[in-house]
Write a structure and sequence with these properties.
The structure is a homodimer.
Chain A (H helix, E strand, L loop, with lengths): L11 H19 L6 H8 L3 H7 L3 H24 L5 H18 L1 H9 L1 H4 L9 H13 L6 H23 L7 H9 L9
């Protein structure tokens, strides 16, 4: 694992990015979701005061880490989808990428999914790029005449399926088996259901 | 909420049941999954030593609480299914009961799903009555000719769907909306998929 070299002078935005990147790295390195601001400051080589300027408290840090996680997840999903020209195949690739991301970044994923109250604009429901991406892709797969309700339900079905699969594997209830993940995700065919 | 009356003399099995029932009640009352053996002992009105005789450590307590949770979940699912004669309708009722149980018992559900390494017979994969029930019901819905692989994949799909939906709602990512839960679960039609 690459260790960030300590620097004393960061531009404002650069330091924020460096702190978050280091936060994510420390998270996955320790496997412990309880990450501290001081630990990150030490690792990056800046004072705790400099960190507090960007993240006044733990919640602000967690919210920013969650946001970073959702950006990375969306990037991974887009990259996975780009390999397919067929829309249904691309959709399934997005689903598999979701599960794979969760399994590869368990501590970050836990923060992403348990601190939505911090990232949601209205403080209650967190919306994010990954969810928006899912809705867009679902819309492409459903018949043009599909109702708004059907779009919402199908998008949530797809999200719940991959989220549940990831959580069951992370919780040790289901073995981590790539072929099984592929089979479970691939058999979800939103364009083909009867309703 | 009923408070257990303190008793000094329990039969062995009775005390264990009383401790677990109290543990579940305290869990949901505090909303805190970090429950202590001493707290349970105090509540039931027995000495900590008496509790340690049943649960030598925290892990033993958590494993027993998880098992109690799975028993209650299976009972709730069977009760929900019993209201329907149609097998497909009963299956959907089982799915909705899973989500409803998780939302009604969040702290217990968290223990059930994050401590499977403690309850699994072989220490790696936790098997439980709720999962077994799901597999049985899936088998009834699929064509007799369905392959073993298809049964496994479809059962896991159904489980992942309700598990993911429950976790997304518990995490605040999806609003708690009974009509939406019903729609998402009811649109899962394992007997009707193309594959």
């Amino acid at each position: 694992m690459k260790r960030a070299s300590p620097r004393q002078n960061y531009h404002h935005g650069d330091l924020r990015s460096a702190l978050l990147a280091t936060g994510v790295r420390l998270l996955e390195g320790s496997g412990n979701a309880d990450i501290g601001l001081r630990e990150i400051a030490r690792e990056v080589g800046v004072s705790a005061t400099a960190v507090y300027r960007h993240f006044p408290d733990k919640d602000a840090l967690l919210a920013a880490l969650a946001e970073t996680g959702f950006e990375r997840l969306a990037a991974a999903q887009l990259k996975a989808a780009a390999r397919y020209r067929n829309k249904a195949a691309a959709f399934r690739a997005i689903g598999r990428a979701y599960v794979r991301f969760a399994l590869a970044n368990p501590a970050l994923f836990r923060i992403m999914t348990s601190h939505m109250h911090l990232t949601g604009a209205n403080g209650s429901r967190g919306d994010n790029r990954a969810a928006a991406l899912l809705r867009e892709r679902i819309a492409e797969l459903l018949p043009a005449a599909a109702s708004e309700k059907r779009r919402t339900v199908t998008a949530l079905q797809a999200w719940a399926l991959v989220h549940g699969l990831a959580m069951l594997i992370l919780g040790g209830q289901v073995p981590h088996d790539e072929a099984l993940i592929k089979a479970v995700v691939d058999e979800f065919r939103p364009g083909e259901t009867a309703t």
